[in-house]
């Protein structure tokens, strides 16, 4: 118990799952989303450790499955719809959605991955636009926006000139 759930679950998976549930609780409060408190997570560890005789036994278990059991099956399905882990971009690439605490969710990927997307991807039943971090080929952000349509109209033409000079091997339609 002193080591906590994070010892037996990839920390990134646990943090992401808890952040997605917290996002749902903020944006869909009437649904009664559970609070994933330290006490609730400690209870997960107790259930996961049942019949284990060593840390090695517990390490072989899928403790994250026990964490997901804190949500009912219909809540898990709603979580996937309301706060997905990834968004599919126009080229078919899947970009991970980040859910920072008390900030808008965001996605970051190369600018080319967004070619063909006229509007900003939205989650939470289409109510919350993602903050989009558009990256140059060197993986540095060249623009951060929640309005892709406006970006394509106003900022992209000038940015296109700069990027096509700096990265001539890439296509800049």
Description:
This protein is an alpha+beta fold and 173 residues long. Helices cover 40% and strands 16% of the residues. It has helices spanning 11-27, 38-49, 55-60, 63-68, 73-82, 148-166, and strands spanning 86-88, 94-98, 106-110, 122-123, 128-129, 131-135, 141-145. The strands form 2 sheets. The protein has a 5-stranded mixed β-sheet with strand order 1-2-3-6-7, covered by helices on one side. β1 (86-88) and β2 (94-98) form a beta hairpin.
> Would you tell me the structural class of the helices and strands?
alpha+beta
Please state roughly what percent of the residues sit in beta strands, choosing from under 5%, 5-15%, 15-25%, 25-35%, 35-45% or over 45%: 15-25%
Number of helices: 6
Low-confidence stretches: none
The radius of gyration computed from the alpha-carbon positions, rounded to a whole number of angstroms, is 20 Å
User: What is the global morphology?
Assistant: elongated
- Sketch the topology as an H/E string, one letter per element: HHHHHEEEEEEEH
Lateral arrangement of strands in the main beta sheet: 1-2-3-6-7
Report helical residue fraction.
40-55%
Oligomer: single chain
Tell me about the biggest sheet? Answer: 5 strands, mixed
Query: How far is the N terminus from the C terminus?
Result: 56 Å
Number of strands: 7
Provide mean pLDDT, rounded: 92
